[in-house]
Design brief:
alpha/beta; TIM Barrel; two-stranded antiparallel ribbon; 11 helices; 15% strand
Amino acid sequence: MSALPSVAAAPLLRGPLDFPDSPLSRSARQPLMLGLFLNLQDIHFSDHPTSNSWTYDYNSALVEKADALGFDIAFSRTQWLPKGGYDGEASLDSFVALGAMAATTKNILLISTLHVLYGPWHPLHIAKIGATFDHISKGRWGINIVTGHRAIEHEMFGWNRIEHDRRYDMTGELFDVLHRLWSDSENYSVEGRLNPWKIVNGYITPKPLYGRPILVTATGSDAGIDFAAGHSDLLFITSPGGAHIDSALETLPAHVAAIKARARAKGREVKAIINPIIVSRPTSAEAHDYARAIAAGVPAPTHTSFGHRGYDSDAVAWLGRRDATHKQGLNLGGNIEIIGSPEEVVDQLAALKRTGIDGVQLNFYDFAADLDHFATAILPLLKQAGLRL
């Protein structure tokens, strides 16, 4: 066999935001995109009572309700941890579960988290499965691209953790190839320079409906942001100031502006989304009582509690939570804590919008009950405030 060409940077491929009729373009026209950040694993964050369940039925029902309410995005993490690494013993795979939800939803975007370097995945697998989910969902499905920050996860797949910035170099090479597979009308042969795979006369059909599936990157590092600026539609960011809303509002404007400027320098636009937890009740006093009750039930951290603090990680995005120069949150979960009456929640979401945030992936302590409260008490006020069409 003759030598295969190495990967060359792919020409800028049209993505869903370049198609005015795509589901992503439809959602991006909202003043503030609304998402639901699911827990597809058995998280025992606090001893305070909750109805939450890791099961597919519980979470798919939430997504169907969010879809009916006009939410734009559904999203979940995926983790690869050994026995004892989860709070409970169950954790569904986001790549499969969110793709399956295409069959029971109509409009909501379904974003599947995928550790793209584990395995390793072959580009033909990702390209073919991605195009299939794209057609099943009619352009509503996408990938949350993660490279893996915990050493123990890389070791589960048989190697030592890859150096942080090199992971994004490898991922960039992978997506240059995926862009070719999703767009080329002829066979494509290539050999990875950084990745251990080859393609000989590779071809996938059908092609995605809007250039390629929706691409999301969850990151806070310079290398991750640079990758996302060149490849992704949505950048799932964290607050540099940590979880307290005041610190988040102080530090986000410069962070978001720098991200969007980096994308524009590459001839692209990206949307910034963030993950608040909404803790709300009819009055401010009741909401803060609820928040304190959740916080009071949080057990002392161990390597098996949510967050898995005992597992070595080189993640950058969450460092602000440990910065004592900023106001500290109550450690309720979510990247930002929004606590208050419905009116106060809307005011805080409006303030986040003013920082440059394009969308919020909402987390709730008790998803079923708290989503109902959001739907009846908060969503109408968001519309009145001009944050939802």
